[in-house]
Amino acid sequence: MSLATPADIGPTEFLAARARWRPVEIVFWLAAITPYFIAADYLQLAGQILITGLFALSLDLILGYAGIVSLGHAAFFGLGAYATGIASKHGWGEPLTGLLIGGLVAGVVGFGASFIVARFRGLALIMITLGLDQIVAEAANSMGWLTGGADGLQGVKTWPILGLFRFDLYGVTAYWYALIVTFLFFLLVRRMVNSPFGLSLQGIRENSTRMLAIGARNHAHVRTVFTIAAFIAGVAGALLTETTETVSLETLSFQRSADVLVMLILGGVGQLYGGLVGALIYMVARDQFSDINPQYWYFWIGLLLVAVVVFLPNGIVGGVKKLGGLLGRRGT
C-alpha cells in the first residue's frame, strides 16, 4: 500500500496523518526512561546522550529539513554553555532561567548570522558557518577575563531545580532533567516539521527556485529556522553547563561540530529521530571502543560511519523505516 499524498486526501488531512503518533515512537520514548531502572551506573552517560541528541536535533532542523549545511553549529552550543556558565558564576544559577539565557544568547547570534546564511548555498555556506565557529571560539579564548580562556570557566554552581531537586553525584537529577527538556523540545520540532512551515522548508531544500516561483518567502523561512535551531543548540549547551558545572573551549571546537554531523549521518539526516538515535549509537560506540583501544577508537567510528553510508544511505532510522515499509507491503 502506497503512502497517501496531499493530492489524495487534501493538505489538512495529509499534515494530520504526518503528525499522528505511531506506536514505535511511543516505544522509543518509553525506552528512554529504562536506564533509570536497569542501568543506574550509566545515568551520567545517558544524560550526556540526551543533551547531545538535543544538539543533533537542532542541526537536523536546518540540515535535514532546510538543506543548510553547517560545519560550525558548535558556535551556538558553546555560546549557550558560556552564557549560562557566566550567569551562574556571577550569582544566578537557577537552571530553568539558565536554559532561557543560553538559548536567547545563541538565538540572537543565530538571528544575526541568518541574514548571511540565507544568501548562500553549497561550499560558500560551509565556509561561512565554519568561519563563524572559529571566530566565536577565538573570541572565547582571548577573553580570558570573562570565559577563563584555555583554563575553562571556573566557579559554576547550579541551584536545585525548582528549589527541590539537587544535582547529585550519580547523575539521577541530571538525567531526568535532560530527558524532560529534550522531550519538550522534540515535541516543538516535531510539530514544526509536520506543519505547513515544515513542508515549506523541505520545498526550499529540494528546489528553492521553484519555491520562489510559487511565492514562498525563502529567505524569511531560512532565517526563522536558523534562529530556532541556534536557540535549541544554545539550550543544549546550557544543559551541559548546568549538569556538569563546567565550561571549556571544547564546547566551541570544530571537533564538536564534526562529531554532531557524524551522529546525524549515522542516525539519518531529515529523519526527525535521526539525531537522537545517532547520538545514542555514536556515544555508546565511543564508550565501548575507547575501552577496547583508547588510542585508536576513532578508527572504529570511521569504519562504522562508512558501513552506514554504504549500506544505509538514509541512516539507521531511514533503513528501519524502509524495512518497515517493505514488511508492511508484504503483509498486505
What does this structure look like?
The protein has 332 residues and is mainly alpha-helical. It has a domain of 231 residues. The chain has 16 helices and no strands. The longest helix has 27 residues. It starts with 5 loop residues before the first helix and ends with a helix. The model has no long low-confidence stretch (mean pLDDT 89).
In round numbers, the mean pLDDT is 89
Morphology? globular
Radius of gyration: 20 Å
Q: How many extended strands?
A: 0
Structural class: mainly alpha
Major β-sheet, in short? none
Please estimate the helix content: over 70%
Portion in strands: under 5%
* Helix-strand topology string: HHHHHHHHHHHHHHHH
Distance between the first and last residues' Cα: 7 Å
Total number of helical segments? 16
Poorly predicted runs of 5 or more residues? none
Features:
single chain; mainly alpha
Summed up, what is this model?
This protein has 332 residues and is mainly alpha-helical. It has helices at residues 6-9, 11-19, 23-31, 35-38, 43-63, 74-89, 95-117, 123-142, 144-147, 172-193, 196-213, 218-244, 254-267, 274-292, 297-311, 315-331. It has a domain at 22-252.
Topology at a glance:
Layout: H1 6-9, H2 11-19, H3 23-31, H4 35-38, H5 43-63, H6 74-89, H7 95-117, H8 123-142, H9 144-147, H10 172-193, H11 196-213, H12 218-244, H13 254-267, H14 274-292, H15 297-311, H16 315-331
Helix pairs in contact: 5-10, 5-12, 5-13, 5-14, 6-7, 6-8, 6-12, 7-12, 10-12, 11-12, 13-14, 13-16, 14-15
